[in-house]
Amino acid sequence: LVGYRNLEVEKLLTINVALPVLATAYILGILIDRVSDRIFIAQDYKMRPAGSEADLPSFLTMRYYILHKSSDIYAQLEYIRSRLRIVRASVFNFILMTTAVLLFVWFQFGKSFTGQNLIIIYASILIVGAILTFASYQSWMGLVKSYSISTIRAYTLLRDEEAKGTGEEKIKKDKHRA
Fold first, then answer.
1. How far, in Å, CA of 91 to CA of 36, rounded?
2. What global pTM score does this model have?
C-alpha cells in the first residue's frame, strides 16, 4: 500500500527486521489456524463417516487410545492431521493473498494500465486465487475423510487386537489352572 519503490531491501534483510517479521508471521499463522478451525469444525463433523460411529467413542477418545496403544500409528495420524490443518488454513491464506495482490495492483499499478488491461489483470488474479482456494478446500475435504477413516480403522484394529489378546491370555490362564 505504501509503495514497493520506497522500500530499502538492504534494511529489510537485516536480522533486526527479520526476527520480528518471522515472529509476527508465526503468530498470524496460529491465528489463521484457529479461525479456520472454528469456521470449518461443523463441516468437519458432518464429513465423518456416519453409521459406523454408533459403537465408537469420540474422536478425541479414539486418538488418546491410539496414542496409548501405538505411538507409530498415532504419529502417522498426526502427520495426516498436520497436513489437514495446513490446507484448511490455506483456504483463508489464498483468499487473503488474492485480496492483497488485488489491492497491491490497484494502488501500485492501477494508473499505469488502461481499463481493459486492468480488467484482464484483475480477472487473472481472481481466477488464480479462486483456483488455489478451491484446490485447498478440496484437499482439506479429502484429508478430513482420510483422517476420519484412518482414525476409526486404527482404533478398531487396536481395540480388536487388545480384545483378542485379552481373550487368549484368559484361555492360557484357564488352561494353566486346569
1. 8
2. 0.76
